[in-house]
Amino acid sequence: MSFTGHAVLATRLTASACADLDLDGFGSALSPTVLQRMAGPGGRIGVTDVTLAAYGIGGGRLRERTDLDDHPRVQHAHALRQQVRVHGDERGVVTLARGLVGRDELSVELAPEMQGRGAGRALIRDALTLVPAGQTVFAAVTGKRAVAARIPRCRLSPARQRGDRQRWVSRQQRRLGWRPAVPGAVNQPRPGAPA
Q: How far apart are CA 165 and CA 182, in angstroms?
């Protein structure tokens, strides 16, 4: 994972096996040479995604779907993640699962006929009701997707790391006076902030 000014590599390789790669925190961790070394012979290299994070809001508005095992989004989730749960409605499909290092991950695919109507934002907001209030959930979004530009309106924002703790707050939450949640706590507005 690359952050501003530093990167974290999760690999079975030793530090000495990576010493010749000239790693830095300014993009080299995502260079083709590094990715090929990390993948190993015959390894698979996917796309570089932006990792977004949001807090669940609880309430569970979407119904669980057991009829979508053949859907490409569901098959993709099963290939990459564990404990995949599938939800959705006429707007599209949502998967919630355990992903990288056991974190909760969300993926969404909007039905083609629903695009351009705000249904994607509404579906993501409803997906966040499936996650307990205050619990962090992640979404990996390919940077070139146009939808990625609209995600901040849906409470998802780029994951950032500060010091040894990670905290995520969307622009909308900051504008409304929300502060970063303490792990295990529900976001609360600052005193005097609009509700």
A: 10
DSSP letters of 159-193? --EETTEE----HHHHHTTB-PPPTTS---BPTTS
Q: Given the DSSP bridges, would you call strands 136-142 and 49-55 parallel, antiparallel or unpaired?
A: antiparallel
pTM attached to this predicted model:
0.66
Instruction: Calculate Rg over the CA atoms of the chain.
Output: 18
- If DSSP codes are grouped into helix, strand and coil, which group holds residue 15? helix
Question: What is the C-alpha separation between 128 and 157, in angstroms, rounded?
Answer: 13
- CB-CB neighbours of 12 under 10 Å: 7
Per the CB < 8 A criterion, the answer to whether 88 and 65 are in contact is yes
Q: For residues 3 and 15, what is the distance between their CA atoms, to the nearest angstrom?
A: 20
CA separation for the pair 153, 161 (Å, rounded): 21
Coil, strand or helix at 59 = coil
Q: Which residue has the tokens 């992640």?
A: 138
Q: How does pLDDT run across 179-192, given as a tens digit for each residue?
A: 444 444 344 444 44
Tokens for 57?
């809001």
Residue 16 CB partners (closer than 8 Å, separation 6+): none
Q: Which of these, 128, 149, 123, 147, lies nearest to 53 by C-alpha position? A: 128
User: Does the structure show a pLDDT above 80 at 194?
Assistant: no
